[in-house]
Amino acid sequence: MVFVKGAKAVMKVLFLPFLKIPTGHHTVADALIRSLERRISSVRCSKIDFFSYADKLLEKAFRVTYLTWIDHSPQTFVWLYRNFVYPSKSTKHFNWYEIKFLDKMKDLIQEEQPDLIVCTQAFPSFLINRLRFYGITTPPVVNVYTDFFVNKLWGIEGIDYHFVPDQTMKSQLVAKYNINPNRVIITGIPIDECFHSPTPYHSIPPYHILISGGSGGLGDIENLITSLPQDKNYYFSLLCGNNKKLYKDVFSLKKSNLKPLSYISSRDTMNALYNQAHAIITKPGGVTLSEALCKRLPIFIHSALPGQEEVNMEYLYGKKLIYPLDVSAPIVDQLDFFFREKDERLLWQQRTDAYMSEIECPAWKKITELLLTYSLSPQKYHQPATATRSTS
Fold it and tell me: What's the pLDDT tens digit per position in 135-178?
């Protein structure tokens, strides 16, 4: 535990994810809270879903609509995401957002009185950024990006610090938005510290393959599992998350080399599974990808939810860090190529090591430094030098 002479008796950090869906926004916030509370005796962390705070009924309606939309009409969701959220543009103002939510954001900050705000999702960051451009001062704010790109909803110019996954994203923020490079820190997408040790390398079959659909068991899992053969060289553990129907369906198949696993809440249990695995087949969610990269697990992509997961997949595929699967072709043949080709495995390992070496500082460590710096300062509220009053 850290205690600094002269610092405030209690330092408050407000974490702002979005929606009540168990997404990476919440996972990243929870991981950072655990790291901070483990180290700083005087820290008090709050995690608040801003949408629920502002309007519980609207949040519920939006959540249900979102899950139904991506399940029943994914292509229309892709069109909307590509045209209105990604790629990033800094000139777009969402006036209907502002009318509905800016006052609520001011109320929340006033109620919580935090020393530092950490946004793990774009919408709260956008609102705080707009408050500052209207001349309203706030505590220091950090954007923690949970995907491998910046969409246009994020607040950028009026935010104090940006925690990004890699050098490419840092270069984009510096070049496109003229952000001071000292305020853009390559932290990787923050994950729990138990996943920081690489998985011991296994080279001898049978190969243990994890299959993940995320905590909700989403993704095109059904088509994937029907194509898995009874092969003595492969053993599959399927992470069903909260999808009870998927668990029952897989269990009823009675495949000797396919084991369904229900939702795993223990991080140590999940880390043990990683350590036993030779590879992971997954959706391209930012947190799962970051855990697998950190564990140095080969990553195969079975499907992608429309929107950010598709962008993540395109980005990491371009860096040759992941392997998309063709579910219409034999899965084992595609896995065999990787495990039998020593040169390919070596190249993948070199690319992954080089990518992970870009990380400059763990996110929790930089937040700790900021907390201690700001707690010793008499100025509670802060206006970044790049923020100016909007003329819109």
Answer: 999 999 999 999 999 988 899 999 999 999 999 999 999 999 99
Q: How many helices (H) and strands (E) does the chain have?
A: 15, 12
Q: pTM, whole model, 2 decimals?
A: 0.86
* Mean pLDDT, residues 210-223: 67
Neighbours of 349 (CB within 10 A): 13
d(CA 50, CA 53): 5
Which of 286, 290, 291 is closest to 308 using CA atoms?
286
The residue segments making up the domain with residue 318 are 193-356
Q: Is 339 in contact with 278 (CB distance < 8 Å)? A: yes
Torsion of Cα atoms, 317 then 320 then 324 then 326, to 10°: 120
Distance between CA atoms of residues 303 and 344, nearest Å: 23
The pLDDT score that the predictor gives to residue 385 is: 43
Average pLDDT, the chain: 83
Assess whether 15 and 157 both reside in one domain.
Answer: yes
Counting the structural domains of the chain, the total is: 2
